Hints:
Strand order of the largest sheet: 2-1-9-8-5
Distance between the termini: 26 Å
CATH class: Mainly Beta
Strand content: over 45%
Number of strands: 10
Radius of gyration: 11 Å
Shape: globular
Low-confidence stretches: none
Structural class: mainly beta
CATH topology: ATP Synthase, domain 1
Helix content: under 10%
Amino acid sequence: xxxxxxTPDKNVYKGExxxxxxxxxxxxxxxxxxxxxxxxxxxxxxxLIQEGKEVKVLEVVGGVVEVLNNKVIVLAEGIKA
Length: 81
């Protein structure tokens, strides 16, 4: 599936991924290929991006995620360094 992570300043990440774990408003949740369509608020926390066996970690400040047709778009308020 395809993932985009965007902040008001820049595009942080674009690419094909195996899975994404997001800091949902109520609890963290994972998105895999063929996930149901979803729109959710995000809290401050870790966004885990899995590319095969490699895992990248981004610290998001908050935002919104949309999952639709194997495309995940994260609109983050910010990314911690």
